[in-house]
Amino acid sequence: MKKFTLTLLCIATLGLASCKKDTIINQTTPNRTIIFDRTSSSWIPNPGAGFYVDLLANEFDLVNLKDEGVLVYIATDGTNATGYFQIPNSVSKYDYEIYQGKIRIYYDGTIRPSSTTRIKVVLIAAKNIS
User: Fold this and answer.
1) How far apart are CA 8 and CA 2, in angstroms?
2) Do 57 and 34 contact (CB within 8 A), yes or no?
3) CA dist 117 to 19, 23, 43, 75, 94, Å?
């Protein structure tokens, strides 16, 4: 009986010692999307060539600039937004730069866009692990 009790005690000790609690940390900040509509008159002539427009938002902060991701899209059909293309790409004449507090969109055309342009900015939450 002593051997049986000792054997059960050893098995229970090994079983409890092998249990491990895993802590799962969920992402608390979801990705965010901001939509901007810019009229034709919003585009400012760029001294070099083309035009630019600034998108102002407090969400473009230092954490977003240094650690997170930013994707920028232009609607293919104005404010209907049934399709988007990501900028920059080899076909479009758009490009952009990101600063704290704003994104500057460049349009490398000879005349400013003639209709309202819908611009979608997606801020991708990320954690810097370097």
Assistant:
1) 10
2) yes
3) 57, 45, 10, 7, 12
Reference 122, options 29, 37, 31, 38; nearest CA is 31
Round the average pLDDT of the chain to a whole number and report it.
84
Joined together, the tokens standing for residue 118 give 């819908």
Nearest to 125 by CA among 80, 62, 83, 68: 68
Indicate the pairing of strand 84-87 with strand 69-75. Answer: antiparallel
Tens of pLDDT, residue by residue over 37-96, are 999 999 999 988 899 999 999 989 898 888 889 999 999 888 887 899 999 877 788 999
What's the angle, vertex CA 79, arms to CA 99 and CA 97, rounded to 5?
A: 15
pTM recorded for the entire structure: 0.73
Strand order in the sheet with 32-38: 32-38, 117-124, 69-75, 84-87
Question: Which burial class, exposed, middle or buried, applies to 105 when counting CB atoms under 10 A from its CB (0-12, 13-18, 19+)?
Answer: buried
What residues does 84 pair with on adjacent strands? 75
